[in-house]
Amino acid sequence: CLATLIIMLVGDTYTLINYVSFINYLCYGVTIIGLIVLRWRKPKIFRPIKVNLLIPITYLAFWAFLLIFSLYSEPVVCGVGLIIILTGVPVFFLGVYWRNKPKSVNRLIESMTCWGQKLCFVVYPQGGVAEEE
User: Fold this and answer.
1) What is the pTM of this model?
2) What is the rounded CA–CA span in Å between residue 61 and residue 96?
3) Longest Cα pair distance anywhere in the chain, in angstroms?
4) What ranges do the domains of the chain cover?
5) Distance between CA 119 and CA 27 in Å, rounded?
6) pLDDT tens-digit profile of 49-100?
């Protein structure tokens, strides 16, 4: 989010759209790859919607062509898009992977979460009884 704000202040909106669209298509392809891997590794799990594997494999073929073409035609935009994705790695390690955090770090994360919820007018549902209006 911070990287996107900096890019918006420095660059133009068209460039930001190019960065984000590359990231989106990369994530779509990884999701379809995950679907295929799950179909092979866990064929017996419940799936509310079943799709013939020919459809995701065909999608992946077109996806790979478009991604390779994007990397060839605009390597700088794709590289910046990958850098934007990689800015989330430290956040993952600090927030999710690091389990035995000091209490001060937990309090900081909780206060940032509360601030973000207030800023965006969202509240994570709590396990208690809902208040009546």
Assistant:
1) 0.60
2) 33
3) 57
4) 1-120
5) 27
6) 888 889 999 999 999 998 888 889 888 888 888 888 888 899 888 878 888 8
